[in-house]
Amino acid sequence: MAQTPRRSDARRNGERIVAAAVAAFADGGPQLRLEDLAARAGVGVATVYRLFDGRDGLVRAAFEAVFEAQVEPVAQAAGAEPDPAAGLRAALSGTVEALAEHRALFRAARESGVIRVDTTERYLRDLDDVLGAAQRAGAVRPDVSLRDLAAVLVMVTAV
After folding, report:
1. In the predicted model, is pLDDT for residue 143 greater than 50?
2. Distance between CA atoms of 157 and 105, rounded to whole angstroms?
């Protein structure tokens, strides 16, 4: 079923709520009360429920916003690096830094089960390109897989 486009004020409220959620997770950890978040965003809690259908929807939207703005560009930039090994190092370290900066949000997203495969696919496709370039340059063993790198990233962020 197609979603009805939101009015411009609803879009602005949604953007404010997502920005407030990202900041609130950074400040207060994974336990976020929607009432506190609504006050922080300058809206009523009913607006949060109407736009995001509750906490899980808000966590998903905040996760996707951070992932799109701060994680995906790391792998894209690494693909443009002339030295494939340096590109892979930059991709991995930049990803860990972005995930660490938002660890409470990522923890909440993991615990809520709202991380969608399609959200991470673009990043993984770009990371796979960087890994392949590093392997072709002889900087990484050929038996290292994208799945290995993803597992390492998950383990590092779980610490």
Report:
1. yes
2. 12
Separation CA 19–CA 155 (nearest Å) = 27
Q: To which residue do tokens 């736009």 refer? A: 51
Residue 138's Cβ-count burial label (10 Å; 0-12, 13-18, 19+) is: exposed
In DSSP notation, 102-132 reads THHHHHHHHHHT---HHHHHHHHHHHHHHHH
- Residue by residue, DSSP assigns 37-95 as HHHHHTS-HHHHHHHHSSHHHHHHHHHHHHIIIIIHHHHHHHHT-SSHHHHHHHHHHHH
Helix, strand, coil percent values for the chain (each to nearest 5): 75, 0, 25
Q: What's the rounded mean pLDDT across residues 11-38?
A: 87
Count of beta carbons in the 10 Å neighbourhood of residue 62: 28
The CA distance from 36 to 15, in Å, is 16
CB 99 within 8 A of CB 72: no
- Structure tokens of 51? 């736009």
pTM above 0.85, yes or no: no
Q: Calculate ∠ Cα 91-27-90, nearest 5°.
A: 10
Task: Please state, rounded to an integer, the average pLDDT across all residues of the chain.
Answer: 88
Total length of the chain: 159
Question: Residue 53: what residue type?
Answer: D
